[in-house]
Amino acid sequence: MPSPDVVAIFGPTGIGKTSIAIALAELLREGGEDPVAVSVDSMQVYRELPILTGAADAEERAALEHRLIGNVSVADQYDVATHAKLAHAEIDQLRGEGRRPIVVGGTGLYLRAALTELDLMPKPREGVRERLAVVLDQDGLEALYARLEREAPDLAAEVDPNNARRVVRALETLEQGLNPAARDENRLWTEETRVPTRLFALVMDREALYARIEQRVDWMVDNGAADEVRGAEPLAGRTARQALGFEELLNDDVDQMKINTRRYAKRQLTWLNKLAGATLIDVTDRAPGDVAAEISTQVTG
Fold it and tell me: pLDDT per residue over 105-116, tens digit each?
């Protein structure tokens, strides 16, 4: 029996990826398959932040097994290279067992890492980071991000303008004559994928998506996300603190959390619309089962 192709479902935060993946799994099981979800979300790996990061809950995980969710502590430093190694191992093991991996998430770099042999950026030259830190202190983050937009708008579209570390890191790569966004833009969806993959990029009317994000943030707050963050804060390392809403909820600023989440979703939509070879699916006003049926038809033929 040949190993099943990977199905990858990518989309912005709040669009309903988990519900669609579960509905797809139900349809695949009707055809005799035994699928497993492999997460490519950079923050759902933290076991102490399931509400804040929107990780699949116990009921959802009972409906579809999820790998690489809640597998590390907020105290741990976690990066894309680590995730790539783990995701490759999960995907290869599942395919070897004849089980179809459903790769699902919204972190573009982690999606790339899971599906390709990602060529990671080299470390910056000595002194570059320190010099940019001085500029950051003197001119502010807005000035650094404006420079990034001028010199590499494609890369800027993938970087949170409010995340100083990532803005500085992006400028470091540019100063080495590298632009990871431009270089890797078409790598994922060609013959360079590690294994045969069908990618489905979910899109939605922007105002409808923003409304869903507002409801999602309110649900998180109502269900204890602020307490979750305060409990994790004493142990949280640098990478865990980058989770959307972490710092905002520490400051009791729900409105800013909503603003930053909408901005992040906008960047995700910009990125996925450039994915050559991806099948775009507009999920506006559609039920998860309807979207899953469309994906299933294309996957199983």
Answer: 988 888 888 998
